[in-house]
Amino acid sequence: MPVTSNSTSLPVQKDPVQIDPADVFPLGGKQPAFQLLDVRAPVEVQRCGIPGAVALPILNDEERAAVGTCYRTKGQRAAVALGVALTAPHRESRVSAWREASVASDRPVAFACWRGGQRSGIAMQWLGDAGVPRVQGGTKALRRYLMAGLESQFESTRSMVISGLTGCGKTDLLHELVKLVPQDVLALDLEGLANHRGSAFGGFPVGQPSQQTFENELAATVHLAAPRVTLLEDEARYVGRLEVPEYIYTATKQSPVVMLEATQSERVARIAREYVFEPTELSSRAVVREDLEVNLNKLAKRLGGVRTAECLAALQFADHEDRWLSMDAHAPWIDILLLHYYDKFYERAMTRLARPIAFRGSADEVLAWFADQAF
């Protein structure tokens, strides 16, 4: 029975309907079997988001903080009473949002809170729909299940790495491979999941997810695919500020490599497009120029003072409305950056790792090679 707005006691449901994390994310299921309604506060969701969940909190950040303080100082009963009082004016709209999400979903829905306890149990009663369960153990159990599955999947499946010099188009190739490879071969875009291109210049305006959210998205992608073979782009330990899990990073450094090759002019054109032209469309020349200058200065120790100065001078020259969107204006500093920074690090890494090379060629040649593979 739904709780009335003047109730000050904790709603208790006998034998609540619960589902396991494995019910939500079935191994090899391609997509979650349930649409999760995440009733945690926004700050909790930001810290540890669950893939595909719809965030519809039962307590907002301020209400959660107040209830938490009350719990620590006055105990559970007082905290529950405060929660009831704080949510009373908003209860109808929050329940309505849960109903709308339930009706809109093409899958059964389920509630989830941090530990699958009070908040999701209360949400079930407020909604008043016996067919909507909650996740046993909540988002904490979901994360534990997903991370354990991620590690076991990488232990039991074969990996192959797409490698090549910066700017050769590894991510673009990976996206093309998604359309080409069999269903049991996963083209895993770590940079897409991390919302970062993986270099000092690779950030996007919206920023990156939290570390736990990134790991959860990664784990769910792999778990739902249950791939026999996983294709990965050759990444460093960190993609932006996010750390690639140890066992995945180890797999990329031990697996066979497909070497993607591109001409220097093709690489320069791609870097100009991704680092200059596309960001300018989303913001402004001034903002992009400032970001590029900051990032070039961060590389000064490794690039060297003379070359850093040359790059900054070339960037200054390009900073004109008649030249900013010209490939030729940016080629001088991009050339220096590729040849004297990225390429050197790449060559050292390839020499140190000495991984077997399965194939090398242009994008078209690599795609043709993959089309012929039986995997």
Describe, in plain words, how this protein is organized in 3D:
With 375 residues, the chain is an alpha/beta fold. The protein has helices at 21-24, 42-47, 61-74, 76-87, 91-104, 118-127, 138-156, 170-180, 190-194, 211-225, 246-254, 264-282, 285-298, 300-303, 305-318, 327-353, 363-371; strands at 18-19, 35-38, 54-55, 109-112, 134-135, 158-163, 185-188, 229-233, 238-239, 242-243, 257-260, 357-361.
Strand content: 5-15%
Question: Which class of secondary structure composition applies to the elements?
Answer: alpha/beta
CATH topology of the largest domain: the name is Rossmann fold
- Largest sheet report: 5 strands, parallel
Number of domains: 2
Count up the helices: 17
> Strand sequence of the main sheet, in spatial order?
7-8-6-11-12
Give the mean pLDDT.
91
Helix proportion range: 40-55%
N-to-C order of helices and strands:
EHEHEHHHEHEHEHEHHEEEHEHHHHHEH
- The radius of gyration computed from the alpha-carbon positions, rounded to a whole number of angstroms, is 25 Å
Number of E-type strands:
12
